[in-house]
Amino acid sequence: MVAVRLGLSPVMQAAVLRAAPSQPMLAMALGISGLYGGSAVGAAVGGRLFDQHGSAAVPAVGTGFLLVAVLCAVRGTRPSPSRGGRAASYPATSSRQ
Questions:
Q1: DSSP category for residue 84
Q2: pTM (2 decimals)?
C-alpha cells in the first residue's frame, strides 16, 4: 500500500501544478495543505467515531467518505462539451493575455 501512495504523489503534484501554472509554489502549498488538512479531519472524525460508537463505525463511515471522494473525482474530471471535450477540472489556459 505504501508503494501505491508514493507512486501517486507525482501524479497528484502534476495535477496541482496544471491547475495554476502561473503560480506553482502557491499551488503546491495549497495542495499540500489540503492533503494534511484532510488527514487531520479524517483522524478527528475517526477518533470521535471510535470513542462514541466503537470500532465497527469507523470503516462504515470511511467507506462513505470514499464514495463521496470518488463521485467528486469522477464529476470533476469528465469531459465537458463547453470546453471542447477537455477535462472540466482544469481551467482553460492561454499563452496570450
A1: T
A2: 0.60
